[in-house]
Amino acid sequence: xxxxxxxxxxxxxxxxxxxxxxxxxxxxxxxxxxxxxxxxxxxxxxxxxxxxxxxxxxxxxxxxxxxxxxxxxxxxxxxxxxxxxxxxxxxxxxxxxxxxxxxxxxxxxxxxxxxxxxxxxxxxxxxxxxxxxxxxxxxxxxxxxxxxxxxxxxxxxxxxxxxxxxxxxxxxxxxxxxxxxxxxxxxxxxxxxxxxxxxxxxxxxxxxxxxxxxxxxxxxxxxxxxxxxxxxxxxxxxxxxxxxxxxxxxxxxxxxxxxxxxxxxxxxxxxxxxxxxxxxxxxxxxxxxxxxxxxxxxxxxxxxxxxxxxxxxxxxxxxxxxxxxxxxxxxxxxxxxxxxxxxxxxxxxxxxxxxxxxxxxxxxxxxxxxxxxxxxxxxxxxxxxxxxxxxxxxxxxxxxxxxxxxxxxxxxxxxxxxxx
Length: 420
Fold this sequence. Notes:
The chain folds into three domains: 5-113, no CATH class; 132-342, Sandwich (Jelly Rolls), CATH 2.60.120; 350-419, Phage tail protein beta-alpha-beta fold. The chain starts with a helix and ends with a strand. The model is unreliable at 57-65, 75-98 and 115-125 (pLDDT under 50). It has helices at 5-19, 24-35, 38-47, 50-57, 65-75, 81-94, 98-113, 177-180, 341-344, 359-370, 395-403; strands at 132-133, 136-138, 144-146, 153-158, 161-165, 170-175, 192-197, 201-206, 212-215, 219-224, 232-243, 257-261, 264-268, 272-277, 283-290, 293-300, 310-317, 322-326, 332-336, 351-358, 373-377, 384-390, 408-412, 415-419. The radius of gyration is 27 Å and the shape is globular. It is built from eleven helices and 24 strands. Helices cover 27% and strands 33% of the residues. Helix 5 (65-75) crosses helix 6 (81-94). The chain is α+β, with helices and mostly antiparallel strands. It comes from Spirosoma arboris. This is DUF4974 domain-containing protein. GO terms for molecular function: sigma factor antagonist activity. InterPro entries: FecR, FecR_C, Ferrdict_sens_TM.
């Protein structure tokens, strides 16, 4: 016979949530379960709605608790008296009326007999859709192309470089056939393009050297349409994940790739790494997943020749390490020896993931991805949050999880006030 005990466990956790008696470990367990699927989030919403509970409570009066559990036991295949006794005794320990007993039974019944996805439950009268592929491409002549409106295929040409938008939401740079057949690499002034994602947007770029870049919301990347000389340099604002291709010049020398962001340069030869360089964060974080990079704290830089940048200090990262450049009047470059790599690049893989993350940090991510304005009312909670949820869900489903920890929200237009 199938073991149904896990289903009743989730009901117990929801019942204890309603009582306000979840331990820290139980709250993490319930949060993880809610985040696992839309079905779980919808069921949690249903079982914590006053209207649902009032309706069901009429059928499960306290005086009939034993009969109610006998019916549930029969329906789920548990016909032994020991099961009913166990459940009733557990309910007695809770010391609350049939409401809590009811929640546990309803949760088990729903999970056992209605495993198909349930209708989405909106906990706020106003909801916000998640972000999507959106970006603006600014060409060298300052003209702009809205990439989410542009049709797939060739969208522009800069000198000998053809710019294409692919069906999977990616910008690709390829040499024209005439340029590809030429062995000349004339020394001309570089032509720069800039791709910018708005709040609520993301996009991917395949650079002229074959390197791949994933841009997070509210970010921009400036780069030449063709890399020349002894380096490949790009400029980042916001957050991006890089997979850098190896490249050699005519002398068969490796050409370094450099990413310039506020106060630092990241220098690589070929590697995978993430840079979070938002202006509203407390620090710029460079996380290495594969290969080797040097993070250079700078006093000044020039995109056209970052190799001559004046360096103040530097760190060399190994996979699994993170450099943190604290922002402010006296920036300091620090090394974090071990970081959660999955958390660092969760956004690129379509997830929000938090590990002992404070509420203001979470709300900044929400603001950028859902394109909303965030304000705090009263004292800001110093609680730390853990958990994972898809970036494809409406904002209301995200709020369901935060509300488990006593965080509440007031929505006025696109302004969200956080009350904790």
